């Protein structure tokens, strides 16, 4: 690509294209991607390690021949057809695979078209279930959700309402969003039994006080993602299950960011089974947008008992054949691999490589879980200087708030992980 064409593309982008959480009038710089392969991106004409896996979705890396073939083969048949009144083999196939690999009670599948939409659908399911079961003992019915501080569930309105109201990027919408009930953030992953018990007591007390108006509980299990990259103990999931059962609430696990092996478990739902499970991101291996909401027959029957009798949602691109075809191929590819060993090796490499950064000025914490490595500062970071420093070291990172972190593709080898650790170190040292 010529220098003139590159400059023309970047100039148009700067003047006309909005990027996520970026000002249109004073945009931060963007870099031009011209290629991708394996665990690397060609950025500004240079091949660099992708530490983000395209926001945690490209678990198999880029240009994987199996996934490329799945897209091409389906496109040769048909690329899209409405899901209202029609079905097709790719949708049936991916639904069957999801039912097979998730806990047994989760056997009803809604194919959404993005993570935020999946959470929207899940919350609608919870509310309709309570209506269908006649649980409207509160004057306004059971219409509120219990969640915890530090969470992030998406950028559309109901998902924003269960995202951390202060640190979750949506504070400006306070007063407009539905008012939800927020419990304390779960304790750290290595918390003592006493700390877990203290958290549990606070959560139980909060749930008891609001039980008459609550419909369900929604959390990101094991790892809170964009709310702070915060891993917490599996014991907290069992407590959430107990609280939900005690008060007749539905438990929703948002595994959009961390499903398909990222935390070292295929799904956290293997540890504790929710009533509703949201999946996305890595579902298609990063190729196309697709999400899924799985729930139980009990929940489906409760929804059918509501006045509508149906789930009141139906996206235009629901069950898109291209996305479903590549999702099935991605799931098969993952399960055919020794992904636990691969994720474990990445985690070990990140833990060892990032540990020395604890001693640097301005570093508050270093933590890892599965194939995730996080360095937390004691101050907000420079969202321009930090990526620039990492890129100069041959790595693409996208830090936010006070965090420099990595979630690389599972195909990253030892050499790429060495470069990734060096890039994180360079970003951290950028201040």
From TrEMBL:
<comment type="pathway">
    <text>Cofactor biosynthesis; biotin biosynthesis; 7,8-diaminononanoate from 8-amino-7-oxononanoate (SAM route): step 1/1.</text>
</comment>
<comment type="function">
    <text>Catalyzes the transfer of the alpha-amino group from S-adenosyl-L-methionine (SAM) to 7-keto-8-aminopelargonic acid (KAPA) to form 7,8-diaminopelargonic acid (DAPA). It is the only aminotransferase known to utilize SAM as an amino donor.</text>
</comment>
<keyword id="KW-0963">Cytoplasm</keyword>
<dbReference type="InterPro" id="IPR005814">
    <property type="entry name" value="Aminotrans_3"/>
</dbReference>
<feature type="binding site">
    <location>
        <position position="152"/>
    </location>
    <ligand>
        <name>substrate</name>
    </ligand>
</feature>
<dbReference type="Pfam" id="PF00202">
    <property type="entry name" value="Aminotran_3"/>
</dbReference>
<feature type="site" description="Participates in the substrate recognition with KAPA and in a stacking interaction with the adenine ring of SAM">
    <location>
        <position position="21"/>
    </location>
</feature>
<feature type="binding site">
    <location>
        <begin position="315"/>
        <end position="316"/>
    </location>
    <ligand>
        <name>pyridoxal 5'-phosphate</name>
    </ligand>
</feature>
<feature type="binding site">
    <location>
        <begin position="115"/>
        <end position="116"/>
    </location>
    <ligand>
        <name>pyridoxal 5'-phosphate</name>
    </ligand>
</feature>
<dbReference type="InterPro" id="IPR049704">
    <property type="entry name" value="Aminotrans_3_PPA_site"/>
</dbReference>
<dbReference type="InterPro" id="IPR005815">
    <property type="entry name" value="BioA"/>
</dbReference>
<comment type="subunit">
    <text>Homodimer.</text>
</comment>
<dbReference type="InterPro" id="IPR015421">
    <property type="entry name" value="PyrdxlP-dep_Trfase_major"/>
</dbReference>
<keyword id="KW-0663">Pyridoxal phosphate</keyword>
<feature type="binding site">
    <location>
        <position position="314"/>
    </location>
    <ligand>
        <name>substrate</name>
    </ligand>
</feature>
<comment type="similarity">
    <text>Belongs to the class-III pyridoxal-phosphate-dependent aminotransferase family. BioA subfamily.</text>
</comment>
<feature type="modified residue" description="N6-(pyridoxal phosphate)lysine">
    <location>
        <position position="281"/>
    </location>
</feature>
<feature type="binding site">
    <location>
        <position position="55"/>
    </location>
    <ligand>
        <name>substrate</name>
    </ligand>
</feature>
<keyword id="KW-0808">Transferase</keyword>
<dbReference type="InterPro" id="IPR015422">
    <property type="entry name" value="PyrdxlP-dep_Trfase_small"/>
</dbReference>
<keyword id="KW-0949">S-adenosyl-L-methionine</keyword>
<feature type="binding site">
    <location>
        <position position="398"/>
    </location>
    <ligand>
        <name>substrate</name>
    </ligand>
</feature>
<feature type="binding site">
    <location>
        <position position="254"/>
    </location>
    <ligand>
        <name>pyridoxal 5'-phosphate</name>
    </ligand>
</feature>
<keyword id="KW-0093">Biotin biosynthesis</keyword>
<feature type="binding site">
    <location>
        <position position="281"/>
    </location>
    <ligand>
        <name>substrate</name>
    </ligand>
</feature>
<dbReference type="InterPro" id="IPR015424">
    <property type="entry name" value="PyrdxlP-dep_Trfase"/>
</dbReference>
<protein>
    <recommendedName>
        <fullName>Adenosylmethionine-8-amino-7-oxononanoate aminotransferase</fullName>
        <ecNumber>2.6.1.62</ecNumber>
    </recommendedName>
</protein>
<keyword id="KW-0032">Aminotransferase</keyword>
């Amino acid at each position: 690509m010529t220098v003139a064409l590159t400059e023309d593309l970047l100039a148009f982008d700067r003047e006309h294209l909005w990027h996520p959480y970026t000002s249109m009038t004073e945009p931060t710089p963007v870099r031009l991607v011209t290629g991708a392969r394996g665990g690397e991106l060609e950025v500004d004409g240079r091949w660099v390690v992708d530490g983000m896996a395209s926001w945690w979705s490209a678990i198999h890396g880029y240009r994987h021949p199996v996934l490329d073939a799945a897209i091409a083969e389906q496109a040769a048949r048909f690329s899209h057809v409405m899901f209202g009144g029609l079905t097709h083999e790719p949708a049936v196939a991916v639904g069957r695979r999801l039912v097979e690999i998730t806990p047994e009670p989760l056997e009803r599948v809604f194919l959404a078209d993005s993570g935020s939409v999946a959470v929207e659908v899940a919350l609608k399911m919870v509310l309709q279930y309570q209506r269908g079961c006649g649980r409207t003992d509160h004057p306004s019915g059971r219409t509120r959700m219990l969640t915890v501080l530090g969470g992030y569930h998406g950028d559309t309105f109901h998902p924003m309402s269960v995202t951390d109201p202060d640190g979750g990027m949506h504070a400006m919408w306070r007063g407009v969003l539905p008012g939800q009930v927020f419990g304390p953030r779960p304790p750290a992953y290595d918390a003592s039994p006493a700390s877990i018990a203290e958290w549990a007591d606070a959560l139980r007390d909060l749930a008891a006080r609001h039980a008459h108006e609550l419909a369900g509980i929604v959390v990101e299990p094991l790892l809170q993602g964009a709310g702070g990259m915060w891993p917490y103990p599996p014991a907290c999931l069992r407590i959430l299950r107990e609280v939900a059962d005690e008060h007749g609430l539905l438990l929703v696990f948002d595994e959009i960011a961390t499903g398909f092996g990222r935390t070292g478990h295929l799904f956290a739902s293997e540890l504790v089974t929710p009533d509703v499970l949201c999946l996305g991101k890595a579902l298609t291996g990063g190729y196309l947008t697709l999400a899924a909401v799985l729930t139980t027959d009990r929940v489906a029957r409760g929804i059918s008992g509501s006045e509508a009798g149906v789930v009141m949602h139906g996206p235009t691109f629901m069950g898109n054949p291209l996305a479903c075809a590549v999702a099935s191929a991605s799931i098969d590819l993952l399960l055919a691999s020794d992904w636990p060993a691969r994720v474990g090796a990445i985690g070990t490499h990140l833990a060892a490589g990032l540990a020395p950064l604890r001693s640097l000025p301005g570093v508050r914490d270093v933590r890892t879980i599965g194939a995730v490595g996080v360095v937390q500062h004691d101050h907000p970071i420079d969202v321009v200087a930090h990526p620039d420093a990492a890129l100069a070291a041959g790595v693409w990172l996208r830090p936010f708030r006070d965090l420099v972190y990595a979630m690389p593709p599972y195909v990253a080898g030892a050499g790429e992980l060495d470069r990734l650790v060096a890039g994180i170190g360079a970003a951290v040292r950028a201040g």
